[in-house]
# Entry
Amino acid sequence: MNTVSVYIHIPFCKKKCNYCDFVSFADKEELIDGYVEALKHEITSIPQQLKIKTIFFGGGTPSLLAPKQLEKILSHFESRITYPEISIECNPGTVNLQKLKDFHKLGINRLSIGAQSFNDRELKTLGRIHTAKEIHETVENARKAGFKNVGLDLIFALPNQTLESWKETVRKAVELEPEHLSTYNLQIEEGTPFWKMTNDKPCLTAGRFQMSNNNFQLPDEETEACMYEFAIDYLKAKGYKHYEISNFSKPGYECKHNIVYWKNGDYIGIGVNAASHINNSRHENPNNFEEYFLMANQQSKGLAGKLASRPARDEISETIMMNLRLLDGLSKKEFKERFGKDIEELYKKEIDELEKDNLIENTKTHLKLSRKGLFLANLIFEKFVD
# Structure
């Protein structure tokens, strides 16, 4: 392993969204300067011989940081960066033209804009701080600032969302000509405001929560499937490649950083609750500031000392599940080179059953989800978990 991707978690937000269960905190901006210093300390634990091929600032809302704060972080990578893909998640309402120009000057060359919807009512329901108009302004400013790789994140199956309103969101997103689009179906996670709007004893019907409040009705399973179908067909017709279950891009603009995850490759997580995966070993940082600051400032405890090895079977199962998220699927040759085993011998029964049910395609070189399998991916993945 000579190269590695780096994820940097920025856990600060203006406001916590109603659906968000990520480790992030609102009204803690007074901690940002101290947090940046802690990030710099943790970065020094990355072995010097490793070259950085991608960097991704995620959150939270990384675009809350001032350019000078981002510069302090990126300066610790300068000797190892050969102009990789450097992405930052950006929320409309937290940036202006000058800030985006400053980000671009720092070498950040990819924006992932959290649009979520182009319907102001839906944005309000989600608890977002921006409007549809501000999404347009952010994309326009990004182009003026010099960004040639802009992505938009969208969420479907929202409370009270109709198929037609989702179609309108997708159309409006495409009109802005982003290089990348992500379309995620809403998941109701425990502890979020949306969770609290469900019944006292939440029940699942066909895999979807039924909300107790009549003002918050989730689309049924059939409508949700139609929303996903529309996104696939419409985006393909507009020249976007469907390269991962939830992700589409113009040719050559696939997210290189996220492909490392889907290939179950090597990456290092920096920051609160960030996870690392190196040589089949894993580590997860503390999920609160106090413990994280203590860990980050103890430079003697480098990354190697924190990693914990995992059972080979867990690594195999995870690699299969992550690779199958990609539309190209899992390479049988790469799997054998990595694990010294033939996947069709390890999981012959499971593969035969899935192929019989038309849920996967089993070619000479790859295993991949069928069109039908895209809608039942989680059930398919369970087949490879012991």
